[in-house]
Amino acid sequence: MRIVLDRELQVKHLKKWTLASLVITDLMRRAIPWTLLWMERRRLHSDLNFSSTQRIASIVAVAMVFALIFALMNPYGWLLLAALIAAAYLLNRDLFLLLDEKGGARLAVGGFFLQQLYYLYSLLGLALGIIVYLLGSRSGQDQSLKKSAQS
Fold first, then answer.
1. 39/37 Cα distance (integer angstroms)
2. What is the per-residue pLDDT across 68-124, written as a single tens digit (0 to 9) for each?
3. How many domains does one find in the chain?
């Protein structure tokens, strides 16, 4: 069957999410299978959560982790961390303004930190997907990987 992406469609998930179930689902049911599909087709998509802006935002999230470690050892590192936080905010300013409007500063700040976590574990999922693909390619298990990515 053909699947069509309708960008105007909005849905509400009725599932009760926990942080653990969110991370596991995003890694195992989204990041890794999508990566396998991209590797199979030999091209990266630039829509949904993989736009150029979101790619930059994920790099900024990783840089923030290193900047935090640096800041713990060097007081000037806090300036770098502050600049990266500002960049992360600006990259998704509309989202954070919406969160602030709907739930106040607490929701906006919480959303900011959850989004940074999302970028980090999504990159982990990308790396794991590449590893699974490469291991599968070397061991001749391409067919089972393709089925996993499509399910």
1. 5
2. 999 999 999 999 999 999 999 999 999 999 999 999 999 999 999 999 999 999 999
3. 1
Those residues with Cβ within 8 angstroms of residue 126's Cβ, 6 or more apart along the chain or in another chain: 31, 35
pTM to 2 decimals?
A: 0.76
Asked if the structure places residue 30 within a domain, the reply is no
- Give CA separation, 137 vs 22, 45, 51, 141, 147, in Å: 29, 21, 27, 6, 14
Q: Give the list of residues 6+ apart from residue 65 with CB closer than 8 angstroms, or none.
A: 120
Within 8 A by CB and 6+ apart from 125, the residues are: 26, 27, 30, 31, 32, 35
Residues 113, 122: Cα–Cα separation, whole Å:
14
Collapsed DSSP state (helix, strand, coil) of residue 58:
helix
| Contact indicator for 32, 39 with CB cutoff of 8 Å | no
In a domain, 101, yes or no: yes
- The answer as to whether 119 is a domain residue is yes
> Mapping DSSP to helix (H, G, I), strand (E, B) and coil, where does residue 76 land?
coil
Give the domain range for residue 116: 35-41+53-150
First-residue to last-residue Cα distance in the chain:
13
Q: Classify residue 26: in a domain, yes or no.
A: no
